[in-house]
């Protein structure tokens, strides 16, 4: 069983184990932000991960209770105890850092917003000074205790063959991983409150930039796909924090060392992105990212409809292409087959809800459809945005000559909603084009040419619409 604090390191994607990235060369700023130059493989002292132990929590800490204006002070032993609470409650990794205004992150948000890279997303972009300063969450915030929960899935089963048109859900959305993470962090917050501190759980909202908190705790490194990868867990983790006014004792609970870059010269995620949304190392153009476009209001950009493929919610391509992620998956499968479930990310989650029946969903009424996609972020809870996505998935994946599929699309084509009608028109044209491509390929193959128009279409912009919208 792995000891806490020593999750195994993944092999560097290129065999490079100590690399100074563009980001890593950025030194400490005037606010004393940590340097990103430490390309250390050593697990930082404040991170605790690996095996999740169950059972009671030893009360070994001697945190001073808050009395009047006296702040709660956390020694190293108190932190260990709080980490233990988190692990017992289901966290795979937990770390701590001091709360501070993150000048660099604020600048990044403002810069990317000015460049329009946030598309029309609000989230952390809405108020960068607020989402980069934990004292806006808790008055007098001094510490962040950050937790990560793995959502690695080792069972990547193909869709049930009885589903005529299978729509794919990204792995993070197949179960309530955020809810489970929040519940685990809440146990840590309760333990802090029991010591007299204020403590609030934040995750995946506008409050703070979750990854920066985790990076500062030494939980992982920033990948070129912008995701945070934890040694031994990869990027299959969701992140959240407990913001508290309890202070770290600088002598016994030193600030951790961030994990150095492990990407090296690898660029697999950049190359794998179907829309070229990774526009610079660690920078995503949300206006091209399928994960955002599936959630955004309005029409789905025509130029990215073919690239959407069969995705109905979220996109995992820049993660499945990632060598450290693959290594983590392989290792987890090996552990499963050897019954050694005591170490590493061993949560064996079959993929419930990873594949959905697109035709069935499209036939549901508003209430039933929203019920089926329950936890997903859908702007204004507007079910037509889900239908919009389904129409594209069907256009890309349904058997092109299936009469019943066409008849459903024709109903939307002539329906009252202009957005859905336009997407249905596009879908019917796409089916026509796919039939044309198949015939073209067959003729090409028969005449000895190497034309493969179907393949080309998967990466090229869609053909011009020939049907009147
Ligand atoms: C907005 C948002 C999105 C947007 C934009 C994503 C983006 N990259 O900005 C959209 C909708 C596209 C999105 C998609 C996804 N998201 Co999202 N999203 C968020 C949210 C709400 C805010 C992120 C944010 O503030 N971005 C702003 C920029 C400034 O932050 P950043 O990208 O981290 O920027 C840092 C790096 O650029 C780095 N950096 C700076 N210089 C350099 C230089 C180099 C060389 C490098 C490598 C890095 C680097 O420093 C910056 C910060 O200081 C967070 C939750 C939260 N409250 O934080 C979840 C969050 C980031 N999302 C998450 C997830 C799971 C996803 C998806 C995987 C879901 C899916 N399967 O579809 C995809 C992944 C797409 C991708 N490649 O990013 C997780 C990520 C967990 C992880 N392991 O990193 C988060 C943290 C939610 C959570 N609490 O767990 N998301
Ligand atoms: S989530 Fe998909 S579209 Fe977005 S950056 Fe990753 S691979 Fe590209
Ligand atoms: S695929 Fe991307 S995130 Fe993964 S190691 Fe390579 S460059 Fe880093």
The molecules bound to the chains, other than polymers, are: cobalamin, iron/sulfur cluster
Q: Give the number of helices.
A: 16
Largest sheet: 5 strands, antiparallel
The ordered H/E elements are EEHEHHEEHEHEEEEHEEHHEHHEHHHHHH
**Percentage of residues in DSSP E strands:** 5-15%
User: Helical content, roughly?
Assistant: 25-40%
Whole-number radius of gyration? Answer: 24 Å
Comma- or semicolon-separated keywords:
469 residues; alpha+beta; five-stranded antiparallel beta sheet; three-stranded mixed beta sheet; 34% helix; elongated; disordered N terminus; binds cobalamin; binds iron/sulfur cluster
Write the layout of secondary structure elements.
Layout lengths: L47 E2 L23 E2 L1 H13 L4 E6 L4 H12 L13 H4 L11 E8 L15 E4 L7 H18 L4 E4 L7 H7 L4 E2 L5 E2 L7 E8 L2 E2 L19 H5 L5 E3 L2 E2 L5 H4 L11 H4 L2 E3 L3 H4 L2 H16 L16 E3 H5 L3 H7 L10 H15 L5 H11 L4 H29 L6 H7 L10
Helix pairs in contact: 1-4, 13-15, 14-15
Bound molecules: cobalamin and iron/sulfur cluster (2 copies).
Mind explaining what this structure looks like?
With 469 residues, this protein is α+β, with helices and mostly antiparallel strands. It has a domain at 1-274 and 315-355. Helices cover 34% and strands 11% of the residues. It has 16 helices and 14 strands. It starts with 47 loop residues before the first strand and ends in a 10-residue tail after the last helix. The model is unreliable at 1-46, 48-68 and 445-469 (pLDDT under 50). Cobalamin (B12) binds next to helix 2, helix 5, strand 9, strand 12 and helix 7.
């Amino acid at each position: 069983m792995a000891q806490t604090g020593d999750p195994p390191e993944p092999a560097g994607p290129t065999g490079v184990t100590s690399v100074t990235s563009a980001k890593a060369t950025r030194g400490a700023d005037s606010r004393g932000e940590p340097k990103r130059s430490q390309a250390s493989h050593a697990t930082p002292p404040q991170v605790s991960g690996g095996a999740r132990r169950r059972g009671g929590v030893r009360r070994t800490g001697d945190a001073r209770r808050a009395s009047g204006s006296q702040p709660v002070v956390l020694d190293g032993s108190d932190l260990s105890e709080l980490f233990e609470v988190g692990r017992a409650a289901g966290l795979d990794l937990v770390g701590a850092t001091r709360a501070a205004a993150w000048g660099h992150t604020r600048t990044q948000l403002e810069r990317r917003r000015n460049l329009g890279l946030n598309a029309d997303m609000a989230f952390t972009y809405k108020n960068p000074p607020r989402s980069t300063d934990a004292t806006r969450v808790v008055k007098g915030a001094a510490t962040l205790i950050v937790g990560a929960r793995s959502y690695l899935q080792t069972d990547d089963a193909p869709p049930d063959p009885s589903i005529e048109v299978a729509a794919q859900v990204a792995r993070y959305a197949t179960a309530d991983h955020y809810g489970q993470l929040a519940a685990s962090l809440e146990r840590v917050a309760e333990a802090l409150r029991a010591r007299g501190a204020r403590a609030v759980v934040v995750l995946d909202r506008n409050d703070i930039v979750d990854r920066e908190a985790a990076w500062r705790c030494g939980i992982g490194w920033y990948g070129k796909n912008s995701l945070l990868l934890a040694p031994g867990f990869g990027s299959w983790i969701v992140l959240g924090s407990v913001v508290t006014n309890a202070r770290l004792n600088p002598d016994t609970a030193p600030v951790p060392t961030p994990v150095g870059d492990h990407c090296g010269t690898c660029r697999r995620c950049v190359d794998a992105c179907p829309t070229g949304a990774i526009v610079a190392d660690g920078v995503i153009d949300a206006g091209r990212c399928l994960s955002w476009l599936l959630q955004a209001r309005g029409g789905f950009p025509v130029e990215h409809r073919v690239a959407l493929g069969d995705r109905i919610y979220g996109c995992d391509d820049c993660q499945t292409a990632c060598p450290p992620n693959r290594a983590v998956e392989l290792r987890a499968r090996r552990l499963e087959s050897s019954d050694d479930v005591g170490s590493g990310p061993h949560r064996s989650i079959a993929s419930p809800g990873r594949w959905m029946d697109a035709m069935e969903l499209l036939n549901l009424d508003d209430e039933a459809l929203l019920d089926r996609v329950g936890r997903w972020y859908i702007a204004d809870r507007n079910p037509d945005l889900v239908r919009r996505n389904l129409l594209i998935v069907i256009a890309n994946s349904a058997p092109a000559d299936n009469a019943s599929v066409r008849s459903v699309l024709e109903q939307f084509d002539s329906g009252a909603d202009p957005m859905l009608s336009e997407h249905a028109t596009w879908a019917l044209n796409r089916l026509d084009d796919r039939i044309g491509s198949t015939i073209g390929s067959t003729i090409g193959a028969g005449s000895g040419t190497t034309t493969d128009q179907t393949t080309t279409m998967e990466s090229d912009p869609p053909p011009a619409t020939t049907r009147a919208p």
